[in-house]
Amino acid sequence: MSQTAIKNGYYGDFGGSFVPEDLQEVLQYIGEQYEKYKNDPEFNEELEYYLREYAGRENPLYLAENLTKQLGGAKIYLKREDLNHTGSHKINNVLGQILLAKRMGVKRVIAETGAGQHGVATATACAMFGMECTIYMGAKDTKRQALNVFRMELLGAEVVAVDKGQGLLKEAVDEAFADLVANYKNTFYLIGSAVGPTPYPEMVEHFQSIISKESRAQHLAKEGKLPTAVVAAVGGGSNAAGAFYHYINDEEVRLIGVEPAGAATLSKGSPAVFHGFKSYVLQDEEGNLLDTESIAAGLDYQGVGPLHAYLHTTGRGEYVTATNEEVLEAFKTLSRVEGIIPALESSHAVAHALKLAPTLSPEDSIIVNVSGRGDKDVEQVFAMLNK
Amino acid sequence: MSQLKDAILATTANGDKAFVPYIMAGDGGLEKLQSTISKLQELGVTAIEVGIPFTDPVADGPTIERAGERALANGTTLRKVIETLAGFASEIKVPLVAMTYLNPILAYGVEQFAQDASAAGIRGVIIPDMPLEEKDIIHPALQEANIALIQLVSLTSTPERVERLTKASEGFIYAVTVNGITGARSSFANELEEHFAKIQDYTDTPVLAGFGISSPDHVKSFGAFCSGVIVGSKIVDSLANDDWATIEELVLASKVATVR
Q1: Residue B184 pLDDT exceeds 70
Q2: Catalytic residue status for A213
Q3: Cβ-defined contact of B56 to A174 (cutoff 8 Å)
Q4: What is the C-alpha to C-alpha distance for residues A9 and A305, in angstroms, rounded to an integer?
Q5: What number does CATH give the domain A58-85+209-385?
Q6: Within an 8 Å CB–CB cutoff, is residue B153 touching chain A?
Q7: Which GO terms describe its cellular component (chain B) (predicted)?
Q8: What is the CATH number of domain A11-49+89-204?
Q9: How confident is residue A244, by pLDDT bands cut at 50, 70 and 90?
Q10: Among this protein's residues, is A90 annotated catalytic?
């Protein structure tokens, strides 16, 4: 990415660090540590080791031939983040941040989680690195992702159900920040999405950028050129940030983010300061946050990472929406046609690819980021389809 | 100059300590705001901190957060609070301090907010999620309207940061006395006294202690080494229970007759 895009934690007008005084220095310290290690060869060697040997990277860029044939347009490639250990892209960032926490000498890790994927990934890494782990999760999310709660507990994490407000990701983030303020001396807050105050968005994007680093090289090797478009689901925006990152300067590659119609932050929101940063947010005219509604817990969030707000306002990124019905249809289609059950979050990207591919020519190609696998959603979808 | 600072200095000149209660506007209905403010004035408070409810109150403890949820459920908004205050502005005798997050002000419009707030008797604002580094977003408009921008100074801050925050703070300095969020606590860290002395070294602006003060004893023990106290959760709880006796005891503890 061009160096002018990010300056002092700002992406154009977006980003920054809008947190209470108690947190300012804690965050500054984390930022300094991140800057110190992100280009450290030893740190990166260790990170690469765990990404390869533990998470199972690199994962395939798979040509979905059946789906391509059925849609009769652009070639569809699937970036298989669902094949990572723990079943989603979340592990990429978790391994990066936990290695940072380890170097900072911290023994306790906390995290927020929406769908549970980030919580599971964090609990997993904490188990492996022998760290104490507390996961904050909205009470409503703990109910619709009960198996992930069990998974985290199995991995030795304490899961705290946050029964406030809507009981969703927002409330979980609030609780995690409160914990960090009270326990910053021995605790690292491992944020899973590309949101929050500086340095988190940049840090998460950096650790997730492995997705596009791989996919770009893989696509070049297979097709001898860059893809026409990269499509990824956007909630907070971490998988999309990772999927777009190394294409941002490739102006000919379309970057398409797909939001849930019921939480369409970029399509329907406006700039605001929330959760410690400035970005697009779904708010009323008084500046209070609006409720969201998505079948994908991982996208059920009022805000969006500052990188996406920046790409949206500069026109570099295209942000579209998918309805719950379209998402369910995509979930079923990819399962049936390719034998790949995508997460409901990832199904947003699939849903848009189903619309986009037929409008393009066979010379075009689309990379769809399959950010996670759908096993966790099967029970929920079963209930919805048999209502 | 700052009416807020003057009010605090006038209080301490008598030997009393400043007492600033925090109330959540709209908790129990906005129609209660006038009578609450007038009763607090009668008890002899120095200023009143008026909390504006927000959907994402990252710096509030559970008591105030719940009060905020009740106020939001009543339809309370920044706009309505200012309108309500403006309706009885002539009867407001003590300076008001608005405690609000940044986003409602941005949605209101920074300049308009400063003008309307000033007309409604607001003489200071506390914006907990706006760091000093970002104060230019609002500071010029507040200066224009003669509203003090109050900084929070935390125990976790380095000496350099304490110095910068202290020097930038207007009206008074809001010293955060317990790590973390607001709420009643029973014990206090030992390093507090030193912390306050350090802050007062940098400025003649009065320092008030906040976050966690919940008994007349707390009021007195903090009063011993700063200019006064801000009491939040305990006041909010007492107001919700219509327990004015508790509030009166707290205010009395700040008066010279009871301060040793």
Answers
A1: no
A2: no
A3: yes
A4: 12
A5: 3.40.50.1100
A6: yes
A7: cytosol
A8: 3.40.50.1100
A9: very high
A10: yes
